[in-house]
Design a protein that fits this description.
4 helices
Length: 124
């Protein structure tokens, strides 16, 4: 099996040759939040076989896009109120909405920013 050719590190001005794209000194360190234990709930049959498909059948278009008068097919089932490990909220069909990926990403980013602001306020 052939190896990839050596190339300079992607960091501007770094002359170190590497096969991975980044040298060890400049390799990006992604600050990912550790996934909560309840994140695996999205893999359970109650979500994959019942809640998600039922919601997309019930509401096939993005709820947020519909507010502005456009019809975009929904691809994501979102929890209106974040469930944060609450099984009752997770499985409540009344707490679900259909969104397109763009609207879901926007909503999630706003929620995460709000969570960060709240956690920063609580720090001494």
């Amino acid at each position: 099996m052939a190896l990839r050719p050596l190339r300079p590190c992607r960091h501007p001005g770094c002359p170190v040759l590497t096969r991975e794209g980044w040298c060890p000194k400049h390799r990006p360190q992604h600050k990912r939040r550790i996934s909560a234990e309840w994140h695996g709930w999205y893999l359970l049959p109650i979500w994959t076989d019942r809640l998600r498909p039922d919601q997309l059948l019930r509401e096939p278009f993005c709820r947020e896009c519909a507010k502005s008068g456009t019809r975009t097919y929904a691809t994501v089932v979102d929890h209106v109120r974040p469930f944060r490990g609450d099984w009752t909220l997770f499985t409540d069909p009344g707490n679900l909405q259909s969104l397109c990926e763009t609207c879901h990403n926007r909503k999630t980013a706003l929620e995460q920013a709000q969570d960060r602001r709240e956690s920063d306020k609580s720090k001494p």
